[in-house]
Amino acid sequence: MTSPALLLTFISGLTVAHYAAAGPPEFDVLKEINALKAALEAIDVPKVAFSARTSKGGAYGNFQGDTTLTYNAVITNVGDAYNPPTDVPKVAFSARTSKGGPYGNIQDDRTLTYNAVITNVGYAYNPATGIFTAPVKGLYYFTFFAHGGGMDRIQLQLKKDGTVVAEIHDHPSNADTADNAGNAVFLELEQGNQVYVNLVAKTAVWGEGFVTTFSGVLLSKS
């Protein structure tokens, strides 16, 4: 693309040459050139500029194959033409209960420990306590499911730092022998927020197999 400055120089040269060959002009050549210069300077040229640096914590490289070097710490990004990588840690877990059969009908509420881990990327879920602790601020997605006998009431509450944010509930029935329930929710969490499932007093779930599960994943970092 020809820059306005080069274009101005070229046109100015043609203008002077034309009037030199044609004789004394009837109007001021410099006046025409200045008007042309003002018109070119008024052209709306978008401002685009960026600078970025690596922030990798030390020595970085020695991979087996070629790798695009990501300059992940932006210094300047005028025009937003540079697309820095989104450094989102991988955080995801799924766990199930392994309790040997029906579990619950306890006199008090308690945190349901999904003690058999299926996936625990980032190790933010603690199977011993049943508690997920957010490692970073961001948007998370959680699901929880339960299977239970028809004569047992199912009631599980998904809690964030002690506050109920979602619930599943099924009344006991003589008409069927088993029930299933599930729910899901998006949560904006701060680093250190805790999410867990509360088993309500005098309710029960089937605690064996792969039917009573708890899962969560980090979708985006804030």
Automatic annotation (TrEMBL):
Sequence ranges assigned to domain C1q in this UniProt record: 86-222
Signal peptide positions (record): 1-22
One family name in Pfam for this protein: C1q
Tagged with keyword Secreted: yes
UniProt-listed SMART domains: C1Q
Keyword Signal: yes
Keywords carried by this UniProt record: Secreted, Signal
PANTHER family (UniProt xref): CEREBELLIN 13-RELATED, CEREBELLIN-RELATED
Recorded GO CC terms: extracellular region
Domain of life (superkingdom): Eukaryota
Name of the featured protein: C1q domain-containing protein
Localisation per UniProt entry: Secreted
Predominant cellular place of this UniProt entry's protein: secreted
